[in-house]
Specification:
single chain; alpha/beta; Peroxisomal Thiolase, Chain A, domain 1; 2 domains; 9-stranded mixed beta sheet; two-stranded antiparallel sheet; 13 helices
Length: about 400
């Protein structure tokens, strides 16, 4: 009979690089930077690690990405990839290795070097995607993330009766909030505030998504040291435990179905239901304290918030867009790290980086006190991380819930 992961695996150390245009370093340097911060946080060294997982989308081998720069020796190193959920997928796989009692102490690193490919946008985002899928002239023709998410935005406006001006202003509030928090996060890529009018008048990328509705292309890495919960006190007293995981991949038929509903992420719903069941969460709006979700575009944050059941379907404007909803003591703080909007999106790193933010917040160690949540809904301090790869109509989604024991 299947068992829940709840409270069985602990995070005893985490690290995160500065995210940005890291022209001065290579991918291996980012791995070292994140891993050694995690080692220091956990009070361990490379020689203590018994197995390692690396989440990376575009590099080809676990040895080249992880084992070589960290001098891990002859231990198992596994490369994991699940599109934009890659970092969380690496965490999930490592956790199940621990509860199988195959290892006692493991390392997870999510990393991506996106800025050195020589062109804008995502590496390998042309007709052949990452170079492994056949080009289907109709199925993939003309696909780009901004255009697919723009279809989601216009569909949402139409379905829920928002005028173009009203809809775009709701999205602008999301970007303003993200940049407000990002300006207070020393590890974010884009550390400046923007105004609602700046967002509204920014150069258009794919209507209604303008420049400030889109996250950046970025370099970065994050890392975690994990053990079984019964061993955690040997490393620290303020460890954090996993409460639930969810993973879902849809059939992708939304790419071709003319009646596809762009306003709801089925894969997010499928993944988060798994995580909530494992964690024993019945009312996420009342029980979840913090959320880091996949805001590759402002509309993605809006629809993901609804698809995670953090507000009612079609009610984002009424229930979430007020500033009190985003304030650290408000009803549902979302992306108080600054989100992908301020950090950018190095694909393999983002999921682990979101968990890093939640881990630090739960411990009361957010880098800037103005971003530190002080009041919690429950003693467990439950925090959720969400990533989804692909674009509307063809998603793979990962959800991770962590909290205090």
């Amino acid at each position: 009979m299947a068992e829940s992961i709840k409270d069985k695996v602990a995070i005893v150390g985490m690290g995160c690089t500065q995210f940005g245009e890291r022209w001065d370093v290579g991918l291996e340097d980012l791995v070292i930077e994140a891993a050694y911060e995690a080692y220091e946080d956990a009070g361990v060294e490379s020689k203590d690690i018994e197995a390692a997982w690396v989440g990376v989308m575009y590099n080809t081998t676990a040895a080249g990405t992880l084992a070589s720069p960290l001098k891990l020796g002859s231990i198992p190193c596994t490369r994991v990839e699940n599109a934009c959920g890659t970092g969380q997928e690496a965490l999930r796989n490592a956790c199940y290795g621990l509860i199988a009692k195959a290892f006692d102490l493991v390392l997870v690193v999510g990393v991506e070097k996106m800025k050195d490919v020589g062109f804008g946008g995502l590496a390998g985002s042309g007709p052949t995607l990452s170079g492994t899928e056949a080009w289907r002239p109709v199925y993939f023709y003309g696909v780009s993330p901004p255009t697919r998410y723009a279809l989601a935005a216009t569909s949402y406006f139409a379905k829920y009766g928002l005028t173009p001006e009203e809809g775009k202003r709701v999205l602008a509030k999301i970007s303003v909030k993200s940049h407000y928090y990002g300006a207070r996060n020393p590890k974010a890529h884009l550390k400046r505030e923007v105004t609602e009018e700046q967002v509204m008048k920014a150069p258009m990328i794919s209507w209604p998504l303008g420049l400030y509705d889109c996250c950046g292309v970025t370099d970065g890495a994050s890392a975690a040291v994990l053990c079984r919960t019964e061993d955690a006190k040997a490393f620290r007293d303020d460890y954090v435990v996993f409460k639930g995981f969810g993973a879902a991949s849809g059939p992708g038929m939304g790419k071709v179905l003319t009646d596809y509903d762009f306003t709801w992420w089925d894969e997010t719903e499928g993944a988060v239901r798994q995580a909530y069941e494992q964690a024993g969460i019945k009312n996420p709006r009342k029980e979840i304290d913090l959320v880091e979700l996949h805001d590759c575009f402002s509309i993605a944050e809006l629809i993901a918030t609804e698809s995670l059941f953090l507000c009612e379907r079609g009610k984002y404007k009424e229930q979430m867009s007020d500033i009190d909803a985003y304030h650290l003591e408000g009803v549902m703080p979302v992306n108080v790290s600054g989100g992908l909007k301020s950090f950018g999106h190095p694909i393999g790193a983002s999921g682990c980086r979101e968990t890093y933010e939640n881990y630090k917040q739960i411990q009361g160690k957010a880098q800037d006190p103005s971003r530190q949540k002080k009041k919690w809904k429950t003693d467990q301090r439950l925090a959720l991380a969400h990533n989804q790869g692909g674009h509307p109509g063809k998603f793979a989604c990962n959800v991770t819930v962590i909290g205090l024991p």
